[in-house]
Amino acid sequence: MSLNSQTPIRCDLLVIGAGSGGLSVAAGASQMGASVVLLEGHKMGGDCLNYGCVPSKALLASAKVAYGQSHAAAFGIADHAPLVDYAAAKAHVQNTIETIAPMDSPERFEGFGVRVIREFGAFISPTEVQAGDHIIRARRVVIATGSSPLVPPVPGLESVPYETNETLFDLRERPEHLLIIGGGPIGMEMAQAHIRLGCKVTVIEGAKALGRDDPEAAAIVLQALRSEGVEIAEDALAAEITGRGGAIEVKTKDGRSFAGSHLLMAVGRKSNVERLNLKAGGIAPSRTGIEVDASLRTSNKRVYAIGDVAGGLQFTHVAGYHAGVIIRSALFGLPSKAQELHIPRATYTDPELAQVGLTEAEARAQYGDRLELARFEFHHNDRALAELKTKGFIKVMVVKGRPVGATIVGHQAGELISLWSLALANRLKMSQIAAMVAPYPSIGEINKRVAGAYFSPRLFESQLVKRAVQFVQRWIP
């Protein structure tokens, strides 16, 4: 029987890709009564579980323990040089993945009523997708195929062994000297993890390390990494790579040269669209993935694209957020648009760096003199003092009493930023943040204290307030 003569699988919703976004859509839609087919030709859980968020944070956790052993004297405990078993640290990474994996397994989603087909999907018409021997016709299709490491065509790279985030966590022999091309979040996180696990580390960045972030905040992170021994070379665009395993050399356009034993390429991500046959589906690509409107619809109005493949912010939590947008639109037919202002991002170095909404530079460009800044330093927080985590600050950009962005660098910045995402998503005022009560002593007090810093000049420097208080004290019994 030819493929074209097969009886197609029919469903309400077809989801292509079983990463964070695709799994959220499939589970939600199926449990709400839709018939759902889920396609995944590679690993369930996608990049986040297998190659990204989960393994990187597990490795950072091992590195944090190693660092703590050698930096304990300030707490009254003797420093000890850690005896690092790199293979065992990677086993911790693998155990973490395996512990979480059942939550993303085919069996779990089949339990929700989802039909899981372990094949890649490709459009054969605007209304049909082929996956292996199956042809699927769905009322709506969600493309959630994610992204992969971007490997630029640096001369010589094709003949030199290198790692990406998809192979690094399989490495069991500790690199003697890890060269990292790319000074973004992935590069800086892996730099700190490996320096703490006993490797030499050099980061080679073609522009500015952490260049997307607030420069003042990024400088604190970079200084911390340099103080731990990470060499960070900026304005160092790779021009040629030579060598073999154990002896690799990277030459830059300005004539510098860096030698190491291993190479990690961490220069960015590219959307996974190659297998999809978008043209057959009547779906327009974009420069960074798939072209979508504010509702995440593609040029084929039956088809949506979410997460990394939609070409916007490439974070797991964005894919999860997009899933909610899709559920509202595709299942209930209600208007639903994706917003970006309240989407936070975090780099999990030590100290952490987090941002939501506009940076100071962006806010100044947009609002000019209407912008006000509220700021609070970590070294004024009692819990931070107790834990010797005093490096950092929070900076909130405020317009007409409402926050439009927040930058946090310091201990638990990735946790603290959530409050400001809530504030931006719901258009809260600084007065509502100030009304919050935070437990003492906690790092979370920093969020309340920065709101207090915003109001302090209005209360303590205002002559009107002082006259009002004096009037009440004099005339009202």
UniProtKB/TrEMBL annotation:
Its cofactor is FAD. Pfam families: Pyr_redox_2, Pyr_redox_dim. Residues 343-446 form the Pyridine nucleotide-disulphide oxidoreductase dimerisation domain. It comes from the Bacteria. The keyword Nucleotide-binding does not apply. Belongs to the class-I pyridine nucleotide-disulfide oxidoreductase family. This is FAD-dependent oxidoreductase. It comes from Pseudophaeobacter arcticus. The lineage of its organism: Bacteria, Pseudomonadati, Pseudomonadota, Alphaproteobacteria, Rhodobacterales.
